[in-house]
């Protein structure tokens, strides 16, 4: 029945709203495939050429439209004349009605024109020049369009704007107003912001910081429209545009908070206009097209007033504009539908929060402890007295690994390789001759580290000499890992066996640790992600009987390389199809027995993903985050072209764009240029290097949010991993009595897989945005280093060699990218100059790092050798060392971090006190464990470590 609601719509109208019901409805409707439209269904819409001077006129309507194309004229414009040209036969061509409907044939869209009084003069008696300010025009546009769409039953239609000249500023102000509406009586106005998908700006003066030039440009626009002699006084609107230009600057600045949510074309005029006998560009290319990531730029061979008039389909600029509109009409309905789901979810949460706040006014107030029982330190390193004492025994073998190292959540399909790995590492003959080494080799994302990590946690008890896991992507990573072993184990145990000066010499640190490994047996060393293109890696390979070595790599060394302990090769192929299928269903949280449909769809999907565990994990995380049904995900995955890209990550990127979460994507565009482990504080210290055009701390509506929330989004979609507060300690020593770091608080670190980084770098290169984002990443690094270096210089207890070493690792990675791209022929001179300048700045900073690392490492090593080590040295990346709470802004109870920002420092004090008491007075240890809950809000001053 035409015009009557569907069964789904009726059910929706009478069912109590909830986010779950909202998503279920989306899932239900998404899987219903409509039959192919027959000839009788593909009816064209109706054309209306009688245009009202003011408000909305629908010049083309389609009976099944799900998109509204809205055209907005500029200064002294008209909703018809602005868009009308004369053809070769002197016929008037009103292209929104005469040309565009044919360009959109086969698609369902309405075409609307909006008229408002933007006159700077008037020669008629029926109305006067405009006396409204631009914000008043914006309010009128939002109200008029909202009410029109409500009257037509099209409030949820996607919106595509085409705006000429200052009409573009009006559209920007309109979207800002729509997004900022907070009055419950006007919530309908938000529909304009939520529904907007794309904007074509034709000759819009987005402006710049040169106020004098801005005023001259506005004067040129008014002079180009009408000679001054025809009017004696300026209209209010023109006065606003010319003299109150701070208002316009604010529009442009605040629009940067939301622009990445939309598809945008910025178009400039290429022909000069005759202004008072002088030919000039009314709005030059720089003002009409400020360089922003993700925006499309081009020119039209026409004057300022002629660039919006197309006499035929071959007119300059028409093909570009109409093709963009056609593409957006095709793409926008599904995207805007998803954004409406998110909007309703947010609205429901706001309503629930408001109801809870009102209820709380009339209910008893309870005081909530800062940390719940489940979050108290008893769940971390020392759960109870009975459980804690074994953790502190010096007889336990050490387990030294990167910060935030934890067991796998899932392990599927590699059980046979797991057994073979143990057999090869424990091979009696090989261990009797020296270290038994195994290389786990496979393509990126095959699960090499996953298998090694599973083995380490399953077989810790088989290695009484301890387990040592070192990230080995670069030589600098390996040096960092060996330094950790040196300061916690090797140096003090080599006292008396090595020269004192040698033990304090950073240049001999690798040799000292390797010699230390060669002195005892029973250990397992894991070098994860090693590359064999640098001869220095062989300096890190020990060789001792009854020991084992795991290497993971995408490469293979030369056969029989004795310097690498002649490793046996375990090549990881693809996951077995059934195991890959079951892994996907398991990570999705599906319960057995699986349905036949789930088994069939999961099998097809993992085959499309080449059965790579990393991609399977990413796909499962995306479906969990978006509640997208497996059937719908499979269909979209199957239909999308995948030339040279990892399809799971392409799908995730598209989903984040659909949700409007551009901050999360901006952060990924930056992190992909760093090395794989990025301390949160390193990132936070450099954030001020970003401008408003590249936000990473705003939500989908452009509103401020904590950096934590951006991290959470990326974690949900399996793009990054982040440390958790209750992970196992980063090291434990057999001699904790003397350990320089017995209770190290593991740093808050982001981990980005190299496959994910490679995907985003390739994506940015294909979209011609690589150099832009590389420059932002380099800016962040340089500012972060300056802030951290200043902090360490001012506070002698802050700063470790590893801090500078981490800067060296990330700096060299960025330098590799800059060396590769700063002379690129594909970038403009300005961008090339910026990259060259950043490269020089980065080079200067990297040159300082060896001296800083050497000095700090030498001092700490000497302290260990002399027994005068300082225990209160802490990393510059510990959050408690932040000079400003704004640097990270990540302490948020709702994020699982708890409200007490000083908790990491207190826990560090607790660990240190516990280790000291274990060695001096074990009876006091019981007392310490008893008072442990006071860590929540009280100091440990009563315990003297």
Automatic annotation (TrEMBL):
<feature type="compositionally biased region" description="Low complexity">
    <location>
        <begin position="881"/>
        <end position="894"/>
    </location>
</feature>
<feature type="region of interest" description="Disordered">
    <location>
        <begin position="354"/>
        <end position="398"/>
    </location>
</feature>
<feature type="compositionally biased region" description="Polar residues">
    <location>
        <begin position="364"/>
        <end position="387"/>
    </location>
</feature>
<feature type="compositionally biased region" description="Basic and acidic residues">
    <location>
        <begin position="354"/>
        <end position="363"/>
    </location>
</feature>
<feature type="region of interest" description="Disordered">
    <location>
        <begin position="881"/>
        <end position="905"/>
    </location>
</feature>
<dbReference type="InterPro" id="IPR027417">
    <property type="entry name" value="P-loop_NTPase"/>
</dbReference>
<protein>
    <recommendedName>
        <fullName>LipA and NB-ARC domain-containing protein</fullName>
    </recommendedName>
</protein>
<dbReference type="InterPro" id="IPR029058">
    <property type="entry name" value="AB_hydrolase_fold"/>
</dbReference>
<dbReference type="GO" id="GO:0043531">
    <property type="term" value="F:ADP binding"/>
</dbReference>
């Amino acid at each position: 029945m035409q015009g009557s609601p569907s069964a789904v719509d009726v059910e929706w109208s009478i069912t109590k709203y909830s986010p779950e019901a909202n998503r279920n409805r989306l899932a239900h409707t998404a899987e219903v495939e409509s039959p192919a439209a027959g000839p009788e269904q593909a009816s064209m819409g109706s054309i209306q050429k009688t245009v009202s001077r003011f408000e909305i006129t629908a010049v083309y309507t389609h009976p099944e439209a799900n998109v509204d194309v809205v055209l907005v004229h500029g200064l002294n414009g008209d909703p018809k004349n602005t868009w009308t040209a004369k053809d070769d036969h002197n016929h008037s061509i009103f292209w929104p009605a005469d040309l565009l409907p044919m360009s959109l044939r086969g698609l369902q869209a309405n075409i609307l024109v909006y008229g408002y009084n933007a006159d700077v003069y008037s020669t008629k008696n029926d109305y006067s020049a405009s006396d409204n300010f631009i914000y008043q025009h914006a309010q009128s546009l939002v109200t008029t369009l909202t009410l029109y769409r409500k009257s037509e039953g099209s409030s949820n239609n996607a919106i595509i704007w085409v705006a000429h000249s200052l009409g573009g500023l009006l559209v920007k102000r309109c979207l800002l107003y729509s997004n900022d509406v907070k009055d419950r009586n006007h919530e309908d106005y938000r529909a304009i912001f939520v529904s907007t998908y794309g904007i074509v700006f034709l000759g819009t003066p987005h402006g710049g910081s040169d106020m004098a030039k801005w005023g001259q440009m506005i004067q040129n626009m008014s002079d180009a429209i009408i000679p001054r002699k025809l009017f004696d006084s300026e209209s209010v609107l023109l006065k606003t545009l010319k003299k109150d230009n701070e208002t316009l600057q604010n529009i442009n600045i605040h629009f940067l908070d939301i622009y990445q949510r939309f598809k945008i074309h910025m178009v400039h005029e290429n022909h000069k206009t005759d202004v008072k006998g002088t030919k000039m560009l009314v709005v030059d290319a720089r003002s009409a097209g400020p360089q922003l990531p993700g925006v499309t730029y081009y020119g039209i061979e026409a004057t300022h007033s002629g660039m919006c008039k197309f006499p035929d389909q071959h007119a300059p600029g028409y093909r570009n504009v109409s093709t963009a509109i056609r593409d957006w009409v095709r793409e926008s309905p599904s995207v805007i539908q998803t954004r409406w789901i998110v909007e309703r979810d947010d609205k429901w949460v706001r309503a629930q929060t408001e109801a809870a706040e009102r209820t709380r006014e009339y209910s008893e107030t309870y005081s909530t402890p800062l940390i719940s029982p489940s979050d108290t330190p008893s769940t971390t390193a020392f759960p109870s007295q009975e459980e804690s004492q074994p953790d502190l025994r010096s007889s336990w073998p050490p387990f030294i690994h990167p910060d935030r190292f934890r067991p796998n959540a899932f392990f599927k399909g590699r059980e046979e390789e797991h057994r073979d790995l143990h057999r090869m590492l424990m091979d009696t003959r090989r261990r009797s001759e020296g270290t038994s080494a195994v290389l786990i080799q496979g393509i990126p994302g095959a699960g090499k580290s996953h298998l090694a990590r599973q083995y380490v946690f399953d077989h810790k008890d088989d290695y009484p000499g301890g387990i040592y896991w070192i990230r080995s992507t670069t030589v600098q990573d390996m040096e960092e890992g060996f330094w950790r072993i040196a300061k916690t184990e090797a140096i003090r145990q080599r006292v008396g066996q090595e020269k004192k000066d040698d033990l304090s010499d950073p240049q001999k640190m690798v040799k000292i640790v390797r010699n230390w490994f060669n002195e005892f047996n029973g250990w397992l060393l894991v070098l994860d992600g090693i590359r064999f293109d640098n001869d220095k890696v062989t300096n890190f390979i020990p060789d001792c009987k009854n020991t084992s070595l795991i290497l993971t790599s995408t490469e293979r060394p030369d056969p029989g390389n004795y310097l690498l302990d002649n490793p046996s090769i375990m090549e990881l192929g693809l996951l077995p199809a059934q195991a890959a299928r079951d892994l996907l269903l398991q990570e999705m949280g599906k319960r057995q027995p699986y349905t036949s449909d789930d088994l069939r769809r999961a099998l097809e999907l993992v085959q499309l993903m080449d059965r790579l565990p990393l991609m399977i994990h990413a796909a499962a995380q995306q479906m969990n985050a978006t509640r997208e049904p497996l059937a719908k995900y499979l269909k979209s995955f199957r239909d999308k072209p995948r030339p040279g890209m990892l399809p799971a990550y392409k799908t995730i990127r598209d989903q984040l764009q659909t949700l409007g979460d551009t901050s999360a994507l901006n952060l990924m565009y930056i992190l992909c240029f760093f090395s794989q482990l990025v301390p949160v504080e390193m990132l936070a210290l450099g954030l001020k290097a970003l401008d408003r055009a590249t936000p990473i701390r705003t939500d989908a509506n452009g509103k401020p949010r904590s950096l934590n929330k951006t991290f959470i989004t990326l974690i949900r979609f399996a793009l990054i991993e982040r440390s958790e507060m209750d992970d196992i300690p980063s090291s434990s020593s057999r001699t904790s009595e003397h350990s320089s770091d017995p209770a190290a608080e593991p740093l808050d670190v982001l981990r980005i897989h190299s496959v994910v980084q490679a995907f985003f770098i390739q994506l940015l290169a294909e979209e011609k945005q690589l150099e832009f984002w590389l420059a932002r990443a380099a800016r962040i690094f340089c500012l972060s280093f300056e802030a951290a270096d200043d902090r360490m210089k001012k506070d002698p207890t802050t700063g470790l060699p590893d801090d500078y070493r981490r800067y060296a690792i990330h700096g060299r990675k960025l330098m590799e990218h800059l060396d590769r791209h700063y002379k690129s022929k594909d970038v403009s001179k300005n961008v090339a100059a910026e990259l060259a300048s950043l490269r020089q700045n980065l080079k200067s900073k990297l040159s300082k790092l060896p001296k800083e690392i050497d000095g700090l490492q030498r001092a700490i090593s000497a302290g260990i050798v002399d027994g005068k080590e300082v225990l209160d040295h802490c990393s510059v990346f510990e959050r408690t060392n932040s000079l400003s709470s704004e640097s990270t802004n990540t302490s948020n109870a709702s994020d699982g971090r708890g409200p007490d920002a000083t908790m990491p420092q207190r826990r560090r004090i607790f660990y240190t006190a516990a280790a000291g008491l274990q060695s001096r007075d074990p009876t006091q240890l019981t007392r310490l464990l008893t008072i442990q809950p006071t860590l929540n809000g009280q100091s440990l001053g009563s315990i003297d470590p």
